[in-house]
Design goal:
Helices cover 69% and strands 5% of the residues. The chain is mainly alpha-helical. The radius of gyration is 33 Å and the shape is elongated.
Length: 137
């Protein structure tokens, strides 16, 4: 099988399309979480810590000289990114746990017994003939 044919089969499978949709939705979800952390979670935490804005927390490694910008170690942005990650990880954990519990319930649910089908007319007739033959013996 040629490499192009294998790639085509791989690319048009439903799982690849599902994965692409998941990546796109995940990227959008990441932006929502970043906004939630930066605009909703971090300001109250900063107020509780004495009015600190986390995005401004930095260590100056080299002062600005003339037109050259200062070199800083922006650990506040890093802390915010860690909180973003923790929220995303928690959301994914809850989603996977919910999906797994739903699958488990689905697997554990007893299958409904199939309704017994009534015998066909031929089967009824054959049963009567068999019973008549047994009674004559």
């Amino acid at each position: 099988m040629s490499l192009m044919k294998e790639f085509k089969e791989f690319a048009v499978k439903g799982n690849v399309m599902d994965m692409a949709v998941g990546i796109i939705v995940g990227a959008a979800f990441g932006k929502i979480v970043s906004s939630f952390v930066g605009d909703v979670v971090m300001p109250p935490i900063g107020v509780m810590l004495g009015g600190v804005n986390f995005t401004d927390l930095a260590v100056i490694l080299k002062e600005a000289v003339g037109e050259q910008a200062a070199v800083t170690l922006n650990y506040g942005k890093f802390l915010q990114t860690i909180i973003d990650f923790l929220i995303v990880a928690a959301a994914v954990f809850v989603a996977v746990k919910t999906i797994n519990s739903l699958k488990k319930k689905e697997e554990e649910a007893p299958a409904e017994p199939e309704a017994e089908q009534e015998p066909s007319k031929e089967e009824l007739l054959l049963t009567e003939i068999r019973d008549l033959l047994k009674s004559r013996s």
